[in-house]
């Protein structure tokens, strides 16, 4: 499975979501209006990245069920 490019892409997408989440959470802990705005921006990016990751996971499952590799 590690040789499957789509699996690697799914894993990278999940990693990106995790990194964005950690950065966003760390910004929530800081005081100030700018940090709050930045944290909200990261959380919006996380939602978009998470939607992409879920779509890739569904595509991966669909292709696997069709008998692809």
TrEMBL record:
The keyword Membrane applies. It comes from the Bacteria. The chain crosses the membrane at residues 6-25, 45-63. This is HIG1 domain-containing protein. Pfam families: HIG_1_N. NCBIfam families: twin_helix. Keywords: Membrane, Transmembrane, Transmembrane helix. Residues 1-69 form the HIG1 domain. It comes from Roseovarius indicus. InterPro entries: Hypoxia_induced_domain.
